[in-house]
Design brief:
Length: 154
């Protein structure tokens, strides 16, 4: 996938954990459900991933009664630990999500970098309301909170 142009959102959190634990959590098929904040829920239609870095995932995000269908492709990020996921088909003009795992002193930094573009017109207005600004900040606050609960052991 070529670099997507557009708005960039980033969130980085350091967890007292290991790279192995971070990878194990994200490889777990139930991780996406754990990382989806209520009241949204996810319905997986086809999981063709053979690993975090290979394959497609087709799903619907349910915002109450409103379904948003999505097809995401998972790929390797050359030179980085983690994985890349990008929208093949979905609500936005483009969505590219880098999940970067960085070993740091005292643990592992989870660095999420999302580059997104909206369509023009009413579709763009809807995706700005659902996948940008405060909703995007809340989504990644929730995702990092849930990741911490899963990978940090006392």
């Amino acid at each position: 996938m070529s670099e997507t142009k557009g708005r960039v959102f980033e969130k980085r959190t350091v967890f007292k954990t290991t790279l192995d634990a971070m990878n194990r959590f994200h490889q777990d098929r139930s991780a996406l459900n754990k990382l989806t904040p209520p009241p949204i829920f996810i319905q997986v239609h086809n999981d063709g991933r053979t690993s975090l870095t290979a394959g497609d995932l087709e799903f619907t995000l349910w915002f109450g009664p409103l379904p948003i269908r999505w097809l995401a492709r998972h790929e390797v990020m050359p030179g980085k630990e983690g994985f890349l996921e990008w929208q093949v088909k979905g609500p936005l003009k483009s969505w590219r999500h880098e999940h970067i795992f960085e070993p740091v002193e005292g643990g592992v930094a989870l660095h999420d970098r999302v580059t997104l573009e909206h369509h023009s017109g009413w579709r763009g207005l809807m995706t700005r309301l659902m996948f940008d600004g405060l909703p995007l900040q809340f989504l990644f606050f929730y995702r990092h909170w849930r990741t911490g609960r899963a990978v940090v052991r006392a």
